[in-house]
Amino acid sequence: MDWNYWDVKKIRIKVEDNGKIVGGLAGHTMAGVFYIAELIVDHNERGAGIGKALMDKAVKYARKNNIHLLYLETGEDWRAVKFYEKLGFKKVTLLEKFFSKKNFWLMIKYL
C-alpha cells in the first residue's frame, strides 16, 4: 500500500492583477479527492471571471494529479450554487444547520 496516497496535501491557488491578489482558492487533496474549502474573490472584481479562472486552475491541477472527485459546500441560498452548477458540480445533499446553523449544499464534480 502506498501510504503517501493518504497524505493530506494543502492546495492554494491565487489570481493576481498587477501584483494584487484579487482571488484565491484553498483546500486539500487526499486519496484522489480534492476538497475546496474556500473560493474568495475581491468584491470589486466579482463578475470578471476570476472565480471561474480559479476553478479552472483547480480542475487542471486535479487532472494533472489523478484526482477523480472535487467537492465543496456552499450556502443553500447563495448565488454560488448556480455558479458551481454551471461548472459541472451537482448537489448531493442538503446539510441542515451547518456553518453558523445555516443550510449548505454539499456539491461534487467527478472528473
From TrEMBL:
InterPro entries: Acyl_CoA_acyltransferase, GNAT_dom, NAT_camello-type. Residues 1-111 form the N-acetyltransferase domain. PANTHER family: GNAT FAMILY N-ACETYLTRANSFERASE, LD18367P. It holds the Pfam family Acetyltransf_1. The keyword Chaperone does not apply. PROSITE patterns: GNAT (PS51186). GO terms for molecular function: N-acetyltransferase activity. The keyword Aminoacyl-tRNA synthetase does not apply. This is N-acetyltransferase domain-containing protein. It comes from Candidatus Woesebacteria bacterium RIFCSPHIGHO2_02_FULL_39_13. Keywords: Transferase. It comes from the Bacteria.
